[in-house]
Amino acid sequence: MYTSLLTTLDNHILTITINRPDKLNAINATVMTELDAVLDEIYENDAIRSALITGAGQKAFVAGADISEFMQVTSEGMALAKRGQDVFFRIENAPKPIVAAVNGFALGGGCELAMACHFRIAAENAKFGQPEINLGLIPGYGGTQRLTQLIGKGRAMELLMTGNLLDAASALQWGLVNYVVPQEELLNKTRSILDLINTKAPLSVAKTIRAVNTVYNYAVSGYDVEADSFGECFKTEDMREGVSAFLEKRKPVFSGK
Ligand code: COA
């Protein structure tokens, strides 16, 4: 179905593997189009409750946007950035968790892809960075914004202006990733967290994502979104089930309603 992505659905978790290992999984126009299409699946298919994104091979998650396509870009540079930003907004605002399992280099657009996900888990060999400055560029897929949100202004400024790479241990210390695990444990660790989230009420999970993302939307009060979402939860069958199960000392069985 896809030419540059592999997808498998197992136990309600969609695993998306960016599959251009000979180019270190660089994001070309095809990968971007296919990521957009796989997001349609995530949004629309009820059998998918969560997703993880990783890269093929053991060397790279994604080593950036495909630099070989850059020489053709002149006046359309802004459109290229907007296109990537739009797709990555769809990841960030997806109503289901999407987690990056970073199995190697996450550079440029690869770091931006990982940062658009709801959280990140890294293999020990992972390396993060925004080396666009070395190409006479800046990040275009949200990197200046999300790196600053995740690690703070001073550290982001340094990484963005030096182009230096961050190893997995430093990424953990700086809050860019939640865990660092051996490469062979990366997918299992990621899936075990998604398995746990998948037992929760789907509407509560979706509302959590929306409310947390509102922290970064200065046009809207996150407190208003939180109160509204909290109120909406009271109208759901899953809230009745969760509270009844607690009171009856049993495990809840959520239906997504
Ligand atoms: N775009 C297009 N092709 C890329 C790429 C990218 N972002 N990153 C790597 N590749 C390709 C290389 O051109 C090479 O292709 P080739 O075998 O046809 O020559 C292949 O992937 C392997 O990469 P190579 O550079 O030989 O591996 P390495 O181990 O020596 O170095 C990196 C690994 C990640 C340090 C290096 O590939 C690199 O710096 N990549 C670019 C990172 C970057 O600037 N990203 C931001 C882009 S905006």
How would you describe the overall organization of this protein?
The structure is a single chain. This protein is an alpha/beta fold and 257 residues long. The chain folds into two domains: 5-197, 2-enoyl-CoA Hydratase, Chain A, domain 1 (Alpha-Beta Complex), CATH 3.90.226; 202-247. The chain has ten helices and ten strands. Strand 1 (5-10) and strand 2 form a beta hairpin. The model has no long low-confidence stretch (mean pLDDT 96). It binds coenzyme A. Coenzyme A is lined by residues 23-24, 26, 63-68, 105, 107-109, 131-132.
Brief write-up:
The chain is 44% helix and 16% strand. It is α/β, with parallel strands linked by helices. A 6-stranded mixed beta sheet has the order 1-2-3-5-7-10, with helices on both faces. Strands 4-6-8-9 form a 4-stranded mixed beta sheet.
